[in-house]
Amino acid sequence: MSEAVDTQALLDWYDDHARELPWRVGPRDRAAGWRPDPYRVWLSEVMLQQTTVAAVRGYFERFTALWPTVADLAAAEDARVMGEWAGLGYYARARNLLKCARAVVAGHGGRFPDTRDGLMALPGIGPYTAAAIAAIAFDRPEAVVDGNVERVMARLWDIRTPLPAAKPEIGAAAARLTHDARPGDYAQAVMDLGATVCTPRAPACGICPWMEACAGRAAGVVAELPAKAPKKARPLRLGHAYVARRSDGAWLLERRAGRGLLGGMLGWPGSDWDDAPDHAPPLEAGWRDIGAEARHTFTHFHLRLRVHVAEVGPDAAPARGEFLSPAAFRPSDLPTVMRKVFDLARGAFDTDMS
DNA sequence: AAAACGTGGAT
DNA sequence: TATCCAAGTTT
């Protein structure tokens, strides 16, 4: 079966059309013997989990400028790394990033394992990321199966089983095609094909190096693949957030628990997000409901937070959280939902002063 | 094994 | 406005 699919044709296409990415060693440099820094491959792969290239670029540049090596990252303070990750989402990735960096330094002499199994044993590295690092950084012939590859394989072989049930079948198809001569280039080539040609909507079949072999195209079902199981509706949750500003300009903030939603991130103290009537503000103060709510949608629910503000004196003693001076508080350290709250609250304070 | 876990851009 | 989607992992 797989004889009909020409992996060399894909590599030829990649040689001409590879995307230029900050973490990538392109096909020309690879042919000259260059290999990417495993640290940068790992960092980029973790950032790219469920996240677009466009969103990752800036974060990758900032992280590598601040922490050029895995040892630098391992030595960083948790709060600094979490703050730098703020806005990118899926914050367990940042927590695991630190765990992984420290494990590589403490347990592997600062060098990443060069096998899929060795990589899989590290925090935050699953089947996809382990295969990607092994292939891209170490040229091991591992099959990388991400969302791009799932889409390409489902179409190429006309696999109509809905995801995620189709994963074993798709994985087997991907493994059959893995290229022995240029594993790193091949892995990136399939993903580039999915990202730029075999796209979710309006795929450019006319310029696809695998057009002739594509069973989905022959059957005229490319637009319907891959099939996906229906998604559940997102419920609406309600809560309250409290933004206190001290007379010296300090803000009352709280470090969230180290697991679960927004775990380890900075945020405004508030109620549980269950619309319970009996929540207490974090501080005795003249709270004012600003009459606006921050709206935010997470993966599995919609959230509306009512925003309350207060200006308090220098002796204010909060029951929760701590005051951070303007010098110690960067709004960019906040996850997006908390930044929305801050923007609304700041507008309310500004209105008061005018 | 199903659910939890973020966000921004495109349609 | 609502939905889909993006280089998935963990529990």
From TrEMBL:
CDD domains: ENDO3c (cd00056). The keyword Metal-binding applies. Gene3D superfamilies: Helix-hairpin-Helix base-excision DNA repair enzymes (C-terminal), Hypothetical protein, domain 2, Nucleoside Triphosphate Pyrophosphohydrolase. Keywords: 4Fe-4S, DNA damage, DNA repair, Glycosidase, Hydrolase, Iron, Iron-sulfur, Metal-binding. Pfam families: EndIII_4Fe-2S, HHH, HhH-GPD, NUDIX_4. Residues 47-196 form the HhH-GPD domain. InterPro entries: DNA_glycosylase, Endonuclease-III-like_CS2, Endonuclease3_FeS-loop_motif, HhH-GPD_domain, HhH_base_excis_C, HhH_motif, MIG/MutY, MutY_C. One of its GO terms (molecular function) is hydrolase activity, acting on glycosyl bonds. Adenine glycosylase active on G-A mispairs. MutY also corrects error-prone DNA synthesis past GO lesions which are due to the oxidatively damaged form of guanine: 7,8-dihydro-8-oxoguanine (8-oxo-dGTP). This is Adenine DNA glycosylase. It comes from Roseovarius ramblicola.
